[in-house]
Amino acid sequence: MNETLREIFASDFLLRNSLYLSLVVGLGCPLIGIFLVLRRLVFLGVALPQISATGVALALSVHVLAGHETGLHNVDPHNLAMAGSVGFALLAVIGWAAMDRRGGGIAEGRIGASYVIATAASILLLAKCPQAEQSWLSLFKGEIIALSSIDLVMTAVVITIALAALFIFRRDFLLVSADPEMALSLGKRVTLWNVALYLIIGATMGVVVLCAGPLIAFGFMLIPPLIAHRLSSNLRQLAVIASIVGVFAALTGFVIAYHWDLPVGPTDVALLGVLYLMSIGVKLLRRQG
Amino acid sequence: MMSAPILTVSKLSVGYQQRAVLQDVSFDLERGSYTFILGANGSGKSTLLKTLAGVLKPLSGNIASAPDSVRIGYVPQRHSIDPLFLLTSLDVVLMGAAAHLAAGAPLPKSHRARAEELLRQAAGDVADREFARLSGGQQQRVLIARGLMTNPDLLLLDEPTAGVDATAAIGILEWLQEMNASGLTIVLVTHHLSEIRRFASSMIWVSRGGARKGSVDELQTPGKLEELLLG
C-alpha cells in the first residue's frame, strides 16, 4: 500500500487528472448536494444524473440516428456529449420548475416518471450502436481513468462557480428553501430563486456526469450530506463534515481502486456506504450514551 | 375615538389557483388595533392573513396601506420551518434581516446585534440552540422576534398560540399586548375565544366564504358562535 501511495502522490503520476477530479468532486458535490438533502429532493438527485446520462447517450448515438456509420463530420463527439449532458440536465430542471410553478399533480411523480423514461430512452438510443453503448457503460460504471486536462479544468471551474454562487447568496437560498412563506412576505421572488438553485445543481450535475459518471455524481451529492446530517447540530457543521467526508472518500476510494485495480466510481460509493453505516452506528451510540 | 386605518381592504377575493376561498371582503384595519381573526377550521382565516402579508396574491380586489410604505412583519405557523434544516434560533431570526438587504449583500454587524438583542428579549439565551429542539412556546417567540426584525408597523401572526401550553400562550399574548400598547398594530389568527375576550380590541369574523369586521361584544350574542364555528 505504501508503494501505491508513493506512486499516486508522485508528480509524474499518470492518472493525476483522475485523482484531482476525484478530489474536486469530493469537495464540491457534497456542498451542493446539501440543498438536495435539506429540501427533501433526494429523488431529484437520483433522476438528474440519469437524465444527464440520457443526454450523453443521445450525443453518442446521434450519428446512427442521422444515418451515418461513423461519427458526424466536423463534430467532436466529446463536445456533443458535454452539450447533451449539461443540456438535458438544464432542460429537466427548467421543466420541473415550470411544472411546479403551474401546480397540480405530484412533484415526486414527475421526477420519478422522468427517471424511468430517461432510463428507457438511454437503452433504446444505444441499442443500435454497440460502440456508443460501450462508452456509455464505462461512464456509467464511473471509470474516470482517461480524463483530459480540459475536462478537469472545466469541472473545477463549474464547481467553483456553483460554490461561489451558493456562498454569496447563501442567505437568500436558505430563506427560500427553509421558509418560502416568509420569503414571499419579504418580497423575495421564490420561484426565481428556486430556478436559480436548480440551474446551479443541474449545470454541476451535467458536467460531473460527463467527466465522472452518474454514479459518482449522485453518490457524492447525496451520501456525504446524509452522513453529515446525522452528526451535525447546525448548518456550519453540516457543510464542514460533508466536505471532509467527501474528500476523505474520494481520496481513500481512489487509493483503494488503484491498488486493487477496481473501477473508481463504485469503489468511492461503496466506501461512502460504509461511512454511512458507521454514521448510523455513531448516532445510535450517542443516543444510548 | 377611531384612529386612521393602516390597511384598507376593498372587495378582496382570496384563495388558491383561481379558486376563491373568501370573496368580496372589505374592511378597514385601524392603526394601533389588536385584531383577532376568528372562524371555523378551514374557513379561510389563514388564507386571508397570508394575502394581507403578501404570501398569496389577491385573486381580485385591493389592499391599500396608509402611508404606502407600511412595513409588514409576518409570523407564520411554527411548523413552517422544516426541522431538517438544523437552523439555530439566531439563524431563524436573522432570516428577517433579508427585508433590509439586497440579494447577496453581506450581513452588517448592526443587524446581527439587533437579531441577538431581539432574540434575548423574546426567548432568553437560546441563540445557539437548535430551533427544532425548542419548546413550542419558545419557537413561537423566536418566530415573533424574526417578524420584528423587519421593524414592522403591522405584525401579522398565524395562530401563534396553536400547540403552545396555556401559560406560554398567555405569556405570548401579553408580550404582544405590550408591543401593541407601544404602537405596533397586530393582527392574529386564533381559535381560542378566551384569548379574544381578554386581549382583542377588534375582530374579523370569517365564515361562509366571506369576512367582516366585528366587535368583541358580538361573542355574547346568542347563537353567534354556533353560526361561526359550524359554518
Would you give an account of this structure?
The complex is a heterodimer of chains A (289) and B (231). Chain A is mainly alpha-helical. Chain A has helices spanning 2-8, 16-38, 42-65, 77-102, 107-126, 130-140, 149-168, 170-178, 180-185, 190-212, 214-231, 235-260, 264-288. In chain A, α2 (16-38) packs antiparallel against α10 (190-212), α3 packs across α4 (77-102) and α3 runs parallel beside α5 (107-126). The mean pLDDT of chain A is 88. The model of chain B has no long low-confidence stretch (mean pLDDT 90). In chain B, α2 (89-95) packs across α3 (109-123), α2 runs parallel beside α4 and α3 (109-123) runs antiparallel to α4 (136-148). Chain B is an alpha/beta fold. Chain B has helices spanning 45-53, 89-95, 109-123, 136-148, 166-181, 193-199, 224-229, and strands at residues 5-16, 19-30, 34-39, 60-65, 72-75, 154-157, 185-189, 202-207, 210-214. Chain B has a six-stranded mixed sheet with strand order 5-6-7-3-8-9, with helices on both faces. Chain B has a three-stranded antiparallel sheet with strand order 2-1-4, with helices on one face. Chain B folds into two domains: 1-70 and 153-231, Rossmann fold (3-Layer(aba) Sandwich), CATH 3.40.50.300; 86-152, no CATH class. Chains A and B meet through α8, α9 and α12 of A and α2 of B.
